[in-house]
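Training component of the fellowship. As part of building independent skills, the fellow (R.M.) carried out the full modelling exercise for a liganded target. The chosen ligand was glycyl-adenosine-5'-phosphate. The inputs are recorded below so that the supervisory panel can assess the work.
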Amino acid sequence: MASADDLMKKMVSLCKRLGFVFQSGEIYGGLQSAWDYGPLGVELKKNIESSWWDFMVRRRADVVGVDTAIITHPDVWRASGHVDNFHDPLVDCRKCRARFRADQVEGTKCPECGGELTEPRDFGLMFRTMMGAVEDEAAEVYLRPETCQSIFVNFRNIVTSSRQTLPFGIAQIGKAFRNEITARNFVFRSREFEQMEMQYFVKPGMDMDVFNAWRDKRLRYYAELGIRPEKLRLVPHEKLAHYASAAVDIEYEFPFGWGEIEGIHNRTDFDLRRHSEFSGKDLSFFDDQTRERYIPFIIEASSGVNRTLLAYLCDAYEVEQLENDTRTVLHLHPRLAPVKAGIFPLVKRDGMPEKARQIERQLNPYFRVFYDESGAVGRRYRRMDEVGTPFCITVDSQTMQDDTVTLRDRDTMLQERYPVADLVQVLGEKIASWKRP
Ligand code: GAP
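Fellow's submitted model of the complex:
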């Protein structure tokens, strides 16, 4: 059995070798806690985002989307409480220069080398920058540390323009930045990351029912996308954030231990009330049916693209013992898999490459596919297993006679024959009905 440390190392090296994730600026020694996504990583990331967007927005009449600026007005963060609350006291080791959160070390000695620690100093978690060429305080702006605040400040714009009535939600996917003190565990905790957040606005009094319903829906969502249910758990918060009346994390059991992939919060009316106070604009809602005016409560479902990507990869990864061999396979849900099908001519002659290229053109408008004619077909299957490609289509001598191909399943390694003309439909059905083996 590989240790948790080994497993994580294998995952990091697999991600680099296959083109999922690279360290940012690697040729210059690497930028700590910033990551670049390679050809397969970007496809996986986009599939994670589009599955979330379909589930949270496209298939619901009561949720609309937005895409707001990363650079944010400083008053947004004063109103939200981030300017006052979003920092941690830190201590540095004078000898080895390691940095720790003051509340996570005991005494005055460095836990790593025994050196003397500095006095605690406040360390702001928000990235500050200057807008425009003149460097004065008026030009100071922040890179957002979460995507939801710009949803709150647009609440009035969205209610008026999209004629939504309560209850309804606003969703967004986008970058967020936090000057994390200790960025670690690969993409799990980085300083630049992406969030998928949905804020659901409800009448006060309905909030806890809606909170419970979203908590259950969101937990089911991960299992439906292939994560083993025993690797997921709900952890209610004992200590609540200043804006919340209830909170629960969805955690995944990573090789390094349980870690939060999504937080569900009952944010009460804190956000809209604060933005009303700070902006002087009325952010209450007038309910036409009951003729009541109130500040809506907000139920938030906030997850991270990069953390869920790591959870999907860790969960899918398996080194399988076969009769005379081992194979590395990613059992990714076909909806998430970067490539849906490999297309192979069995040999590089007798018209098979041309036929395989024709199938590639037939499938390309519907699915991301990958043509490969190099090496033995068994090696080609293994390469596709390793990157999580759920299906492989092989053109053989029978294809040239009856226009059928073999379709190999990644998980069972079984092959079935199908007419070339049916491939779009068959792949669509198999992707939709996939169940984890
Ligand atoms: N608006 C609420 C909010 O931002 P959070 O628990 O701080 O709540 C939500 O963040 C999600 O964002 C987390 O569950 C995690 O998936 C992701 N996330 C937060 N900080 C992160 C970091 N430093 N690196 C990667 N993902 C992060």
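The panel noted the following from the submitted structure. The CA atoms of residues 212 and 264 lie 9 Å apart. Residues 146, 148, 178, 180, 189-190, 193, 195, 197, 260-263, 300, 302-304, 306-307 surround glycyl-adenosine-5'-phosphate (CB under 6 Å).
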